[in-house]
Amino acid sequence: MQPLDEFPDQARRAVRGVLLDIDDTLTTDGRLTAEAYAAMQRLQASGKLVVPVTGRPAGWCDHMARMWPIDAIVGENGAFYFRYDVETKRMHRHYHAPAEDIAANRAKLATIGAQIVAAVPGSAIAADQAYRETDLAIDFCEDVPALDAAAIARIVELMEAAGMTAKVSSIHVNGWFGTYDKLTMIRRLFADVFEIGLDAEKSAFVFVGDSPNDQPAFAYFPHAVGVANVGDFAAQLTSPPAFVTEARAGDGFVELADLILAD
């Protein structure tokens, strides 16, 4: 990972949009700062596409799509995208799985979640689970005392044994049925909504994140950026981002926005 100030100036000037993780990338210690929110607003006001890409639930994403200065949002680790049309006051929703499959999986997710919490002392169903539609989130440090690496690995193991895809974020282990990820839905969104073929134009878009579940996007985007706390997961990264900010979390996102918008 190169320091952010090594970001090529020609590439910086060609940036057309920013895709960003939320937890510990946009937020700091679980809170959205005024500076980070303003950085999103400045990027969008400059004509850049702004698209959060998060593991957070559908209920939260509906709110963000309506209220935040963003062009769309990918949620639940790639299960869907939401786009709110401000002019028509209409929400557009696209899911990876059909509605009948999502409904059928809900009972399975509840059962598996209860089994994991019973098997891994100190873990808990994530507080935002009630607002999720497609996945199971097990909390290992957001609202519970931080669990060690062995406990986190055990959560992943139990999810995978149940036939789920499991990914570790900075706060949760998320599990779902299917082989999609954040990048899968990013590409679908850009083709459907923005009419952009990312395979040909990915160098004009920056993805910024902080944790192992961001690795497909880190590997795909040549100008991917990690906020400084991505270094906390260095041992787990097989596909690190090309660049890293000096500042951590939301301050790192502001640092990136300032770079992109510099004259």
3D architecture notes:
There is one protein chain. A six-stranded parallel beta sheet has the order 1-13-12-11-2-3, with helices on one face. Strand 11, helix 8 and strand 12 (225-226) form a beta-alpha-beta unit. The chain is of the alpha/beta class. The longest helix has 21 residues, at 99-119. The protein has two domains: 2-96 and 182-261, HAD superfamily/HAD-like (Rossmann fold, 3-Layer(aba) Sandwich); 99-176, Hypothetical Protein Ta0175, Chain: A, domain 2, CATH 3.90.1070. It is built from nine helices and 13 strands. The chain is globular, with a radius of gyration of 18 Å. The chain is 36% helix and 19% strand. The relative contact order is 0.19. The mean pLDDT is 97. It has helices at residues 9-13, 34-45, 58-67, 99-119, 149-161, 182-192, 198-201, 215-220, 249-261, and strands at residues 2-3, 17-20, 49-52, 73-75, 80-85, 90-95, 124-125, 136-139, 165-168, 172-176, 205-209, 225-226, 243-244.
